[in-house]
From TrEMBL:
<dbReference type="InterPro" id="IPR035965">
    <property type="entry name" value="PAS-like_dom_sf"/>
</dbReference>
<dbReference type="InterPro" id="IPR036890">
    <property type="entry name" value="HATPase_C_sf"/>
</dbReference>
<feature type="coiled-coil region">
    <location>
        <begin position="548"/>
        <end position="575"/>
    </location>
</feature>
<dbReference type="InterPro" id="IPR031621">
    <property type="entry name" value="HisKA_7TM"/>
</dbReference>
<keyword id="KW-0472">Membrane</keyword>
<protein>
    <submittedName>
        <fullName>GAF sensor signal transduction histidine kinase</fullName>
    </submittedName>
</protein>
<keyword id="KW-0175">Coiled coil</keyword>
<feature type="transmembrane region" description="Helical">
    <location>
        <begin position="6"/>
        <end position="28"/>
    </location>
</feature>
<feature type="transmembrane region" description="Helical">
    <location>
        <begin position="103"/>
        <end position="125"/>
    </location>
</feature>
<feature type="transmembrane region" description="Helical">
    <location>
        <begin position="155"/>
        <end position="173"/>
    </location>
</feature>
<dbReference type="InterPro" id="IPR003594">
    <property type="entry name" value="HATPase_dom"/>
</dbReference>
<dbReference type="Pfam" id="PF16927">
    <property type="entry name" value="HisKA_7TM"/>
</dbReference>
<keyword id="KW-0812">Transmembrane</keyword>
<dbReference type="GO" id="GO:0000155">
    <property type="term" value="F:phosphorelay sensor kinase activity"/>
</dbReference>
<dbReference type="InterPro" id="IPR000014">
    <property type="entry name" value="PAS"/>
</dbReference>
<keyword id="KW-0808">Transferase</keyword>
<dbReference type="Pfam" id="PF02518">
    <property type="entry name" value="HATPase_c"/>
</dbReference>
Amino acid sequence: MATYVFWGTVATTLVSGLICSAMAVFAWRNHDRPAAAAFGWLMVAAAAWAFMATARVLTAEPASAYLFDRFARAASSSTAPLVLVFVLSYIGREDVLTPRFVGLVWIVPAGYTALSATAPLHGYVQGPESVWVGTWEDAAVLTVTEGIPSQIDLLYTYVVLAAAFVLLARFLVRSRAIYRLQTATVVTAILVPVIVNAATQFYQFSHPGVDLTPAALGLTGLVLGWGLFRYDLLDVTPLASDILVDELPDPVFVLAEDGRILDHNRAAEAMFDADPLCDRRLTTVAPRLAERLDGSSVYSRSDGPAEEVTYFDPQVTSIDDQHGVERGRLVVLRDVTGQQRRQDRLEALQAATQKFITANSVERIAELTVRFADRVLDQDIAAVYVHENDRLCPIAASDGLERECTLTELTVEDRGHPIYSAYESETIERADVRDSGTTMPFRYLLLVPIDNHGVLAIGSREPGAFVTEDEQFATILARTTQVAFTQVDREHELRQSRQAIERRNEQVAFFNGVLRHTLRNALLVIEGRANHLRDHVDDARQRHLDRIVQWCEDLSELSEEIEAINDTVTASEAQRLDRIDLGGVLSDRVDVLSEDFTDVTIDLAVDDGLTVLANDLVEKVVDSVISNAITHNDAPAPRVEITASEIADRVQLRVADNGPGMTDEMKETVFERNVGASQTSHGFGLYFVSVMMNLYGGTVWIEDNDIRDEGTRRGAVAVLEFQQAETQHTSRSPENERT
């Protein structure tokens, strides 16, 4: 019997070595998997231990037995550190495996191996002389006596293995460790040879020269390889079971890498109405949902006999292992039907608002309001009442309401009626109109005032049908309708005002035309009579006739100027503005004024190419400003300096004089209408300048001139800013500088 046990142990140890070798090869072929490299080296050490232990048992030479024993002990001493390295790799703590840490872990195994190899030199470890022949029930085997260093190495092995088990235990209970069953398998596989080794320390199961631990390593390699490489995703389900709360109203399920459903809660099963769901692909159960898991779109589903649409927002969470590799996905379908409906209502309101803007009548606006209310409020009917002649008259209503009665029958005249009460109080009311004496077929009403225009009525046959959200959207709709009504009223008033202005302009133009025509004819008659009298008047009195003729010519010219001004005022901006060469206008006017005022020095400096937006009346504008500077100049040597230049996108004209200047109060009022031409200059005065600059889209103001005369500041500067017709490069030209 002992012989069978002996040879059975030897055979098991040999098979264990073969299994560990196979696992090492398998690990090498799957080296891309996490912890595969550490597992491979562990299997290499286990295989070496098993083969060397088998060789030692089978050899009959003491020297060979001692050599095989040294190799076996070197392999066994390295097994515990390799287990620790494997565990650290498995739980994702490769950051700990620094060269320094690995060196510290291998100090004892390396020292023990070195002492064993050099035993004949120092004697600290048993040498070849420690080999002896041991027998156990007729079985004789060469055995090597163990010493104290061997016991120290064994103790160190247990300490390292204990550290590995602590790490695995902590990893096993962690909530993020998704490989719980696999981790338990790893713990069991490593624990088997440890238990066997510990048991042999206290009880002799076989020949003392035969170690049962290498035989148990085969089982360890087989279980570890199977659990590490084959038992991969099946343990996602236990983690998902921890995560899933079966009572959640939202559907929740776990997907494998290939899209199979691994687990789900009851809500998911009820939603898809498929039994069983597990191991079925999501693309088969819900194809449209599978397409939306990788995007941000909402998944909709119609349920029930009424085909009510429910909206879900898929929330996808990646299920990663301890190495950060995705092993599956946790999908939660969050019900967002309420949010989606609110969004749909807001989008519909936005679309309706665009239509409200283009609506040109109260009836059209009311029709849009009813249509929108029918679309988004999910109530039976809607109607818009407007206030006319102390009555509230419906001008638009839902088709369902018009099928029940005519709009005339729905008119409300009784001020005690809930609809009239809501209109007068301008407060939102929920009313029961059963006893109101009205023909309204819908008993329960939500009444929202539309300012002083009327009331928006929402009707239902069911009590309590109006929720807060309905009231909020009805209020928004009523306010939008109110704005649209007000806009239509204002546009109507504006059209009436425009028509009145157009009629008035036509009347003014007519009477102006008659006046100018009559005035011109009268002036022609006066001028003709004066010329006729020349032959009957002596030379001494001819100057009176000349004065009459001159006034006739001036008044005729003034009539033409007034006509031009009137045309400018009544014309549109595009009609009144043209591109004017400001430099040319200034040059011409300075030539004329220099001849009229020979005692005044006029300096002109204008940049080239200054083109402004104005019309032919700009000559009169320039004349008025320059004439004002000349006429009111009381200096002994009157001087006017005119400059024009481009400033940003404007053209600035400055007319500076050395006259008495203006007070601050005069600067503020000089352009007002009540300041006559006699206070400023001949012609239309500076009020005319202000009006024309405003029509040109420009501005005008007065500044102080920085001239000192015996300590007193003198002079003023009239500044005119025009719109620039186009941006051009400007430079000061000698041709535009003159005195």
